[in-house]
Specification:
Elements (H helix, E strand, L loop, with lengths): L1 E4 L8 E4 L1 H4 L4 E4 L7 H13 L1 E6 L2 E6 L3 E4 L24 H4 L14 H17 L3 H6 L24 H14 L3 E2 L1 H17 L11 H17 L4 E2 L1 H19 L5 H6 L3 H20 L7 H10 L4 H13 L11
Parallel strand pairs: 3-6, 7-8
Antiparallel strand pairs: 1-2, 4-5
Helix pairs in contact: 7-9, 8-9, 11-12
């Protein structure tokens, strides 16, 4: 995000802006988002939450603005998402749940074989390669670069106009710079009604929360973006409806009908959290009944088996909970 460097090796340190600082009031597009180091991840928390980053290095103390939208792409740790798993989609990415929860929209792209879609994708790739221009010829200067707008088509095959890329860029820039829409009373009431109604739904578990205040902030930003792209100074009901449709769609794609903010923020589904609570309660009860105040592992496993939790699953969960610091397993008490 930002760094200090001694470019001339003369002891005069200078502050160099990073990607998010350079993207201030614009858009930062980040690929391989899950490959960031820990230092960059901690900076992302502040940048996305406070819209600024703080630097305190080499005697330089500064606060830089990062008022930008972040479009990020990340890959699952196993190479592809596992739909049937106790681990939610968001936890299958090598990113901390608190960082993931800061995004207004989370699209999950699963690789599921579908004949019609696969045919369309393959046909598009082959037709693009067939109609494209070789990069070698462009580098040699014997062919024109189509990306520079020299030979771009102006209409589609069925006669529809194709907007020029530069025109789209100018339109978006103008909208972002000049349009600051304010919500109408009707639009605000619609968003409030959705928030209150969704809060009442609860969730599949006792600790489940269907929506949080952070989510309604994201929906509000989507509604404002809808109004801005129309060059409207007010957020109308149609903008609120569009924001709600988009929100309901990505929430449905991510977790289905039972959307759970707790799952998003903890990285654990309701079933996994329920099993952990069962283990903690069982361990606590056995430890309280013991003179030494310690629950023996075999006794815990036997009791969990009576609660319907298999020995293998219980051992795996206990090992994980010990690693996370939720349980203490002293040596010599197995």
């Amino acid at each position: 995000d930002a760094a200090v460097q001694d470019a001339n090796a003369d002891g005069r340190w200078t502050l160099e802006a990073g990607a998010l600082v350079l993207a201030d009031l614009g858009l930062a597009a980040i690929d391989e988002f899950d490959k960031m180091n820990e230092g960059d991840r901690s900076s992302m928390h502040e940048a996305m939450e406070q819209q600024r980053i703080s630097i305190a290095k080499a005697g330089i103390n500064a606060s830089l603005q990062t008022r930008c939208a972040v479009l990020a792409a990340a890959n699952p740790k196993a190479g592809r998402f596992q739909p049937v798993s106790d681990v939610p989609f968001t936890a299958q990415i090598n990113l901390a749940p608190p960082l993931i929860s800061r995004f207004d929209v989370i699209w999950v792209m699963t690789d599921v074989p579908k004949t019609e879609l696969d045919t369309a994708i393959a046909s598009h790739i082959l037709s693009t390669r067939a109609s494209g221009t070789s990069e070698t010829l462009i580098a040699e200067g014997t062919a024109l670069d189509p990306s520079r707008g020299v030979s771009q088509a102006t209409t589609t095959a069925d006669g529809q106009d194709i907007l020029d890329t530069n025109l789209v860029k100018k339109y978006v820039a103008y909208a972002k710079r000049n349009i600051q829409p304010e919500p109408t009373k009707a639009a605000s009431e619609m968003l409030v009604a959705y928030y209150v109604e969704t809060r009442q739904l609860g969730g599949p578990g006792s600790d489940s929360i269907a929506i949080t205040a952070r989510a309604i902030e994201g929906i509000s930003r989507l509604a404002e973006a809808s109004a801005r792209i129309r060059l409207s100074d007010t957020v109308e009901v149609e903008d609120a409806q569009r924001a709600l449709r988009l929100t309901k769609l990505w929430r449905m794609e991510l977790m289905g009908d039972d959307f759970d903010e707790t799952t998003l923020q903890t990285g654990k589904k309701t079933t996994a959290r329920s099993k952990e609570r069962t283990i903690l309660d069982t361990t606590r009860d056995l430890a309280a009944a013991s003179e030494q105040g310690i629950a023996e592992l075999n006794a815990v496993l036997n009791e969990l088996d009576r609660h319907g939790l298999s020995r293998a699953d219980a051992e795996d969960l206990i090992e994980r909970m010990v690693t996370e610091g939720k349980l203490l397993r002293p040596r010599g008490y197995d």
